[in-house]
Design goal:
Number of helices: 6
Number of strands: 13
Distance between the termini: 51 Å
CATH class of the largest domain: Mainly Beta
Largest sheet: 7 strands, antiparallel
Oligomer: single chain
Shape: globular
Structural class: alpha+beta
Strand content: 25-35%
CATH topology of the largest domain: Jelly Rolls
Strand order of the largest sheet: 2-4-5-12-7-10-13
Radius of gyration: 19 Å
Length: 249
Amino acid sequence: MLVRSPHRPEREEDLVTPSRSPVRRSASLAGDEAVSWFADSGYRVLDPRPPRAYVDEVRGPDLRIARYWHSETTLLREAPDRPRAAVLLQVDGSVALEAPGWTGCAEPGSVAVLPASASATITALSPGAHLEVEFDADQLPEALRRDYEGGALLDAEVRPFSTVLISTLNAAFNSELVPEDPGFPAFRLAVRSLVSGLLTVDAAAQGRLATRGEVLVDRARRIIARRAADRAFSASVLSRELRISARSL
C-alpha cells in the first residue's frame, strides 16, 4: 500500500533536491530502493510485500511526470498539503479507484484525475503500468480546477486527445530532456495545456464546459497576477490583452 508522504515538499524550489535525481530512465527498483523512490514521489509503501517498479521520471519546478510499471499493490494517496493536479493515464492492467463521492475502474486507455485536496485509494490486483502528470492545481483554469477538484474518471471521449498527451510524455522519456534545459519551461507549459485540453474535452462531454465569461474571468485573473507589479499595466492594457472592449471589461 502506498500513502502520500505528509512530508512531501510542495514549494517549487523543493520539488528537486540534492538528495534525489530529477531524472530516472529505465530504472529497475525493488525493495528498499523502490520504497525510497515512492517516498520521493509522495507515497509511503505500507504493503508488506516488497514492491517492485520500473521507472522513467522527470521532475522539474512544479512538474512531475512519470512512466512506470509496478507490482500488484494498494495505493492510498493522502490529501496533499496544497491542491495538486494529478492525472493518471492507465497503460496496462487495471486499477480500482475510490475517492470521496465516486468510485471507478481504470482500464488500459482510461484517464483519471485524482482529488486535488482529498485522499484516494488505488487498488491494483495484478501488475500494471501507467503514466502520471502532477503540478500545482492553481495552474489549471479556474473553472476546470473547480469542476475537477474532487477528481474523476474521465469520459471515453477524451481518449483521442489523451493519445496526444501520452505521445508527448513518451517522447520526453525517450529523449534526453532534463529540467535544466532552457526549453523546459516551454515543455512544462505544453504539458499543462494538454492536461487542460483533456479536461476541457471531458467537461464538454459531461455538459459542464465553462462559459465564455468564466474563461475570460480566469484569463483576466492570470494576466493581473502576472503583471500586477508593472506600472504600465492598466485596465485598457488588460482589455487589449483579453481582446474585448473596455466597456465589456
